[in-house]
Amino acid sequence: MEKQTETESITIHDVAEVAGVSISTVSRVVNDLGRVAPETKRKVESVIRRLNFHPNSRAQALSRKRTDTIGLIVPDFEGQYFAMLMEGAHQEAQSHGVHIMVVKAKGAEEKIEAVSRLCSQGRTDGVILMLSDLYSDVLDGIGPMTKPLVVLDQDVYSWRLDNILLDNRLAAFEATRHFMDVHNVDDVFFLGGSETNVDTTARAMGFSDAVKKMGIDAAQRQFFCRVYSYDEGYRLTEKDILPLIEQGKRYGVVAANDDIACGVIDSLMDAGIYVPGQVGVIGFDDSSIASQRRLKISTMKIPTKEIGRMAVRMILDRLANKAKEPAKIVLKAELIVRQSCGCGLKKN
Amino acid sequence: MEKQTETESITIHDVAEVAGVSISTVSRVVNDLGRVAPETKRKVESVIRRLNFHPNSRAQALSRKRTDTIGLIVPDFEGQYFAMLMEGAHQEAQSHGVHIMVVKAKGAEEKIEAVSRLCSQGRTDGVILMLSDLYSDVLDGIGPMTKPLVVLDQDVYSWRLDNILLDNRLAAFEATRHFMDVHNVDDVFFLGGSETNVDTTARAMGFSDAVKKMGIDAAQRQFFCRVYSYDEGYRLTEKDILPLIEQGKRYGVVAANDDIACGVIDSLMDAGIYVPGQVGVIGFDDSSIASQRRLKISTMKIPTKEIGRMAVRMILDRLANKAKEPAKIVLKAELIVRQSCGCGLKKN
DNA sequence: TCTTTTTATAAAAACGTTTTCACATTAAAA
DNA sequence: TTTTAATGTGAAAACGTTTTTATAAAAAGA
């Protein structure tokens, strides 16, 4: 059959020819579908080994109508958060023989475009979309999905989509209550990230919830950084919180992430305030920085790796069972008590 | 042509039928190959829009013999390093309409397996392989490559492979010289990561180079952590460096990354030593932690993002021009002078 | 012994594109 | 005019699998 064998690599046809069987038989052997005589099987397997045949996954993808790839769309690669999410997602994917395709998409436009490239064009079997900003237009833009989509961070239950969330409100509530209940502070502050960020807004609400019980006005005690960063945390503390600190009173600051918390702490320290003695600080995320400072940072640990793992599993589940109702999973953060909140200080 | 149109999505055939042309014409329109009458083109385009047709990338991949995807194999997702590499790679890829598939592979076995899955099975058009440990068997295991492979971190020029490296030896030399030349220290130490790590070994050599000029023995002044971590840095400083510090003398410590540098600093401070006054510290990487501490860390900045970007470009270049000679690119680190080395202190 | 069932295999039809060829037209060159 | 070249289009052949259908041979049931 004078085929031009000078192509890039060995195909199932080559194997079939050498083994003297049909390609269907080779396929059956490769995919272990049975219905093939033991001796034939042995022969084909030996030829496969000898020719070093690897089934072409592009052809498999076309024929099987799936790619064994899951898309992961994130707003950016910064910080520990992405690494942890990736770790969990990859781990779960790997154990199911599935690959991960990562795309960074910032604005609504980009996100819609990314979902289209990954899903509509069939590059992946499903997509994990991290939506940390309030983009209802993203979901409108995406339209009805034909493939599994799980949304992270933002509550999209009303869209009837699979959803994994963190109970940010409860987490911030607990952090704030920790200051009020165990440290008996006179006042508390909240320093969030961007006000369009759903995590920050939920955390601000949790802060309010807690503060109401003290009978004080939450609005005057919460401030927002433009971005989740050390520098912003430092700056805003200097500008907004410092002027409110009075001698002889004790305070607690709930920061929306650990980077901001570091900024808060350094800003206070540079101003000569005793941290955590006079002002305690609790961060969010339990990123590596939280335990890599002299003053170990107390923080609300988010099970990010677990979120990544669950997201992949959800996609795989839905792939296996299309008809399932959309699920909404809400995870809880955990307070990791270290030094910056004031715990571990000798009682005065 | 009673096709079963209850399939998952619109194909080129549907478009052709509705527009009343052949699929070749639709393909020509979609790929903008010309040779199609203006009116026909307009008609087809309108049908495409109306039916919301997206070419199936799996079929394109099979037909075009490429996936427009590049594989990225890294040892882990920890730290800033991965995020930066990803950032650069993604940025360059995005601008060429190419996607990134990320795989984590730790041991030699896993790496070989990953290259096979990504390349031999045709899931990607080329692979970026980060080889930070001494695995000559990985390259043997991979065997001759039919697709572009660029190796990061480890010098594999003798294998005739594309290669992007950092001049770690020079970088460590410069860091060490900084202590000797501008801070006039009495002695210097090197605190590396794992001894099997190629970065660490190269940096240890650079340290030796510098130290030889002082006429002292490098071997007694270099120590190695099992992993690049804060805790190890802390522990080894306490155990190995602290006992060597004498009152009245000035020292410099070159740490193999910023995490270790933090551990060194905190360990010294906890022991009551004045940093950077008596002992200065320089880290590696310029990770975010370096500028998010009260004592800003001086560090050798590695152009990681640039490495990611160049790696993708190299793959793309080779894809465009197969015959090219393998290239070896060596990048330089840059000393970012902040506080921990002792600069910025008032002269005494 | 003659069905019927099972088993092993091959042939052929998808999967949804791109691409090569062939074949008309039409325009340009002579 | 007549030849040559360019243009617009469709048919058909890849691309390398999986999957369905068909068929022959062997085994089982009657």
Give a quick precis of the structure.
Helix content of chain A is 42%, strand content 17%.
Structural features, described:
The structure is a homodimer of 348-residue chains. By secondary structure, the first copy, chain A, is α/β, with parallel strands linked by helices. Chain A contains 12 helices and 12 strands. In chain A, the strands form 2 sheets. In chain A, strands 2-1-3-4-5-11 form a 6-stranded parallel beta sheet, with helices on both faces. In chain A, strand 8 (251-255), helix 11 (258-270) and strand 9 (279-285) form a beta-alpha-beta unit. In chain A, helix 1 crosses helix 2 (23-30), helix 5 (79-94) runs parallel beside helix 12 and helix 6 (108-120) packs parallel to helix 7 (136-142). In chain A, 50% of the residues are buried. Chains A and B meet through helix 4, helix 5, strand 2, helix 6 and helix 11 of A and helix 4, helix 5, strand 2, helix 6 and helix 11 of B. Strand 2 (99-104) of chain A pairs antiparallel with strand 2 (99-104) of chain B. Chain B binds a DNA duplex (30 and 30 nucleotides) through helix 2 and helix 4.
List the helices and strands and how they pair.
2 copies of one chain form a homodimer.
Chain A: H1 12-19, H2 23-30, H3 38-51, H4 57-64, E1 69-74, H5 79-94, E2 99-104, H6 108-120, E3 126-130, H7 136-142, E4 149-152, E5 162-166, H8 168-182, E6 187-192, H9 198-212, E7 222-224, H10 230-241, E8 251-255, H11 258-270, E9 279-285, E10 298-301, H12 304-320, E11 328-331, E12 334-336
Parallel strand pairs in A: 1-2, 1-3, 3-4, 4-5, 5-11, 6-7, 6-8, 8-9, 9-10
Antiparallel strand pairs in A: 10-12
Helix pairs in contact in A: 1-2, 1-3, 5-12, 6-7, 8-9, 10-11
Chain B binds a DNA duplex (30 and 30 nucleotides) through residues 7, 11-13, 21-25, 27-28, 30-31, 34-37, 40, 55-65, 122.
